[in-house]
Amino acid sequence: AIRNGVARAAETLHNLDWFEINQVRGHIEDGRIAHYQVGLKVGFRLDENA
Q1: How far is 4 from 7, CA to CA, in rounded Å?
Q2: Which residues are CB-neighbours of 35 under 8 A, at least 6 positions away?
Q3: Strand, helix or coil for residue 9
Q4: Please, which residues bridge with residue 44 across strands?
Q5: Selected residue with higher pLDDT from 28 and 50
Q6: Contacting residues for 20 by C-beta, under 8 A, at least 6 apart
Q7: H or E segment at 28?
Q8: What is the mean pLDDT of residues 29-43?
Q9: For the chain, which residues make up each domain, given as ranges?
Q10: Region 31-50 average pLDDT
Q11: pLDDT at 48
Q12: Residue 23's Cα: distance from chain center in Å?
């Protein structure tokens, strides 16, 4: 989930530098983890020539 989130952010942002997980949630069905998701923040560096 974290890799997917960072990969998705990298599609529209560049110079990604760090990430922070601020939330983890999941859904249980029949006593097993059915799916989960993470909330994350990503940090990036601005271009110097901007």
Answers
A1: 5
A2: 26, 27
A3: helix
A4: 16
A5: 28
A6: 40, 41, 43
A7: strand 16-29
A8: 97
A9: 2-44
A10: 93
A11: 87
A12: 10
Give whole-number Cα distances, 14 to 2, 11, 36, 39, 41, in Å. 17, 8, 26, 20, 14
Superfamily of domain 2-44: Flavin-binding protein dodecin (3.30.1660.10)
Tens digit of each residue's pLDDT (9 = 90 or more) over 8-35: 999 999 999 999 999 999 999 999 999 9
- Tokens 């993470």 appear where? 38
What residue type is assigned to position 45 of the chain?
R
Can you name the residues that pair with 21 across neighbouring β-strands?
40
Give the dihedral of Cα atoms 28, 36, 21, 43; nearest 10 deg: -160
Residue 50 has pLDDT above 80, yes or no: no
